[in-house]
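Late entry, written up from scratch paper. The run itself happened at the end of the previous shift, but nothing got recorded in the book at the time, so transcribing now.
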Amino acid sequence: MSILNRRDALKISGVGALLAAASPALARSAKAKAPKAAPAALAFFPGAYVEGQYALPPLPYAPEALEPVYDAATVKIHHGKHHAGYVNGLNQAVAKLKAARAAGNFDAIKGLSRALAFAGSGHALHTLFWHSMTPGGAKPSEGFKAAMAESFGSLEAGLAQLAAASNKVEGSGWGILAYEPLSRGLIVLQAEKHQNLAFMGAVPLLACDVWEHAYYLKYQNDRGAWVDGFMKLADLDFASRLYDAVKLG
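Output as recorded:
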């Protein structure tokens, strides 16, 4: 895949920055073009982009590791079926866009652009989602705790906003804690579907999936109970390290 094709795929929304972080190929390209080392964020999501194609990265833990809060059966289906489906859809959209450019025929550009945004955002956010949890949860660094306090008043207030936003997403979507580079602060977003209501340029640091497929086997239609469970698993150490890499990068 050419650099041009990858740039096309990164024009999705703020989550494009997350896909960039997932791409070892882009990391090598950045190093080749500049004497400075590539941002450390590029190493946070191994396996999400491999040998010129987007790929399903391995889980960072065993499927049963998040029990009893998040059941292994859901993790296996969610990762191996749903996430894999977004990866396949993204690669198909990129390939069709390449063919359209080669043919000089953009009659299908509206649908292809929509597929690129939907599948690409789905892949990016699911890649982050698996790293947003860890058995028993994890505490933030002092620096990240201070950043949360600066943006939200306190760590607890920011997490409460994330939980509330996740619980009240209209329809299917995500609650997202993100770094916003214009203010150099943190924000909480709701993302309907995957790509709607995006804040362009914001880089997701923690993502709670509230599509029903993410929790229905265990929690049925009780989204609030799932969100409470997710917050108990939240890996604030990972979010802290990703925040440092993104802010400094």
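Residues 41 and 245 are 5 Å apart (CA to CA).
(Scratch paper discarded after transcription.)
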